[in-house]
Write a structure and sequence with these properties.
Length: about 210
């Protein structure tokens, strides 16, 4: 019964939680805009949305994010930049679609964010960190499919990061190769995932099998 529920997108989406699902939706928005697909949200103690942001480092300047078009316009920074200095962040949780980089981790520490969570290790790291605990493997696949498709669209299929990912995350690259690029460019993330959800779940299972040895 649990297995059947996990295979169903709407059930999985309902179980995913706001931090995971909204971070991924924002990453998907970055993909649609031609940017780097990373999204982040800040939630309060009750799990309500306080602020959100997506990577805009590669967006043209002039949008509504203060940092847009600058090298520090990471998803987490854009989310934090929407919170007042006077706010007590100690009870807040920042969720990102990917493990925060050194800059964003330092910003979270500096601003006193109570907890930092992420959906997937950063595929742009030479040595990606361990998988996050408490996040279903299918969301990790979704996060990395979005990220790597964004890199492919921006830098081409021979981008070093994609070549490296073929060794580090073969199931994700196989999935990327199997789906049409336009499949991910739907108005909403759920529309993109619906037709390929069984492939996402299968990739997550194969990845887990590889890791378990
Ligand atoms: Zn960052």
């Amino acid at each position: 019964m649990m297995c059947a529920m996990a295979l169903d997108l709407s059930s999985a989406w309902g179980d995913g939680g706001l931090g995971v699902c909204r971070s991924l939706e924002l990453a998907h928005q970055s993909l649609l805009c031609g940017g780097l697909p990373v999204g982040a949200v800040v939630l309060d103690l009750d799990g309500e949305l306080v602020a959100e942001g997506r990577n805009r480092a590669y967006d043209p300047p002039g949008g509504d994010d203060r940092l847009q078009g600058s090298p520090i316009a990471h998803a987490e920074m854009n989310a934090l930049a929407r919170i007042a200095t006077s706010a007590d962040m100690s009870t807040m949780t920042l969720w990102s679609s990917h493990q925060p980089c050194a800059m964003c981790a330092a910003a979270c520490e500096f601003t006193g964010v109570g907890s930092v969570r992420f959906v997937a290790p950063d595929p742009s790291d030479d040595q990606p960190g361990p998988d996050p605990s408490g996040v279903e493997g299918h969301w990790l696949i979704v996060a990395n499919v979005l990220f790597l498709e964004g890199v492919r669209a921006y830098s081409g299929a021979s981008a070093p990061m994609l070549v490296r990912a073929r060794g580090l995350e073969p199931e994700t690259i196989d999935l990327l190769d199997a789906i049409a690029p336009q499949q991910l460019r739907t108005a909403t993330l759920q529309e993109a995932l619906g037709p390929i959800w069984h492939q996402v779940v299968s990739a997550a299972q194969r990845r887990q099998h590889r890791i378990d040895g």
